[in-house]
Amino acid sequence: MPTIIITGNDTGVGKTRVSAALARELSAHGSVQVVKPVETGVAPGGQGDVESVLAQAGAGVAGHTLMRFHEPMAPAASAALEGVRLQLADLLEAYRALAPADFRLVEGAGGIASPLDADGLDLCDFAKAVEADFIVAVVEDRLGAINQARLTHAYAAELGVPVYLWLNATSRQCEAILRSNREGIAASGLTLCAELACGQDVPVWHAQPWLGAQPSRSA
Question: What is the pTM assigned to this prediction?
Fold first, then answer.
């Protein structure tokens, strides 16, 4: 079961949009499970990121949010307002109880270095604990993307897990900026797996190493 971590350079860069596109693509190759370890800013009974992915991805995709808190803040701070001391160990326990699937997508909260629990551990610590196979780093396709891509990739690459960039346009940009972003990423020796244009649902694929990958060692 290849496990793919989906993270990004910041909050609001389109991780859920990318998760839906990737889930939709992978559902043609087997069962897909989308997991959100922790989510904030969703009222009780409200629709969160996983529900959004399921609505867009179609059949063959299941979803789970392991923990959810109401206030739109960093996970540990939002949890504390509800009297919960958020711990990575608790998230991992819930994660490991999930049934397997052919592909598992794990979507983080906020940017890649955003603390995930009360001790300051983040999504990279989670990825290490579950022995993830790949990391997809979503970078907003705009002016400044080259810097953001290099910083995000450098942080993720410390895990020793293959890192693939995904350029996601949340607003329309001029062709010169779009071209410069791709040239800068290529010149930096970084690998682009896909790009998604503003207003589009179907990505342009450059690499899908998870197809045909060996099963993850994690459950």
Answer: 0.93
